[in-house]
């Protein structure tokens, strides 16, 4: 386990070690882990004139957050991109908005967007289940669009906070769990995390200069779980399970600090760019890459070992996931 004290010491060096004029895109940063990561980043780049894009559904609801960020880091250019990324078209529109604003280089793409639905499968107008879209299809779409801009950065990082190392077997005959009989909270979580790792490995293989991290934060005290609770069962869970989870959960502030550590430290950077990242803290070793070239990081900030499962998935399912993903994207944007 990497102690949080060690991580805080590393983060404290960022204002003096990070370069100026960094550009970061945060997707899912209006609450929870993403918001905490964003605040840590704003503190780490004080007087460094970063450009920060925050993609979310409501600019008005995020007014206080934006004001707080500008107070923390007056040198930052902060832009809120108001789009619904539970829709593939929303992702495309968000990317177009940022490019229109002048985005032509990207140093950090940090994504933590997603939620857990306890109401069964419900579909967006694009025919997709929104919790799976935000956790997988939309994230993959952002990476697809941003690969050229990431490759213009001297030290690019893509961080996904979801469930790295928790991959499992896929139902390849129904990857988007279209059939209600195949959909459940667990199956949606496994499919989203597993497909995400496989797609990250595909991009990592083709783009060896980009550091891809897929982390699993474990239980964190965020609004994520409660947002999926409704009806009588939701009320019962809110009053019984949620307090217990929060008692044992990591704070969002710590989870966000750990996330920024993954995005900035040489421990989780690929060899071609590790010299440009913050030095690995004394006593720690370089994190292991998966055989597909992705840093899978557990809640203890150590490398996760799921190679036995991933080897099988790469051999049998990776190409099917890629083909399926492109079919989903094409159907959504042509609808």
Q: What Rg is obtained from the alpha carbons, in whole angstroms?
A: 19 Å
User: Regions with pLDDT < 50 over 5+ consecutive residues?
Assistant: none
- Biggest β-sheet: count, sense, barrel? 7 strands, parallel
How far do the termini sit from each other? Answer: 47 Å
How much of the polypeptide forms β-strand, as a percent range?
5-15%
Look at the helices and sheets and give the structural class: alpha/beta
| Order of secondary-structure elements | HHEHEHEHEHEHEEHHEHEHH
- Number of helical regions: 12
Percent helix range? 40-55%
* Overall pLDDT score: 93
Q: In what order do the strands lie side by side in the largest sheet? A: 3-2-1-4-5-6-9
The overall strand count is 9
Shape: globular
Write the layout of secondary structure elements.
Layout: H1 4-12, H2 14-17, E1 23-27, H3 32-44, E2 51-56, H4 63-72, E3 77-82, H5 88-100, E4 108-111, H6 130-150, E5 157-161, H7 185-206, E6 211-215, E7 220-221, H8 224-227, H9 231-248, E8 250-251, H10 252-264, E9 295-297, H11 307-316, H12 318-334
Parallel strand pairs: 1-2, 1-4, 2-3, 4-5, 5-6, 6-9, 7-8
Helix pairs in contact: 1-10, 3-10, 5-6, 6-7
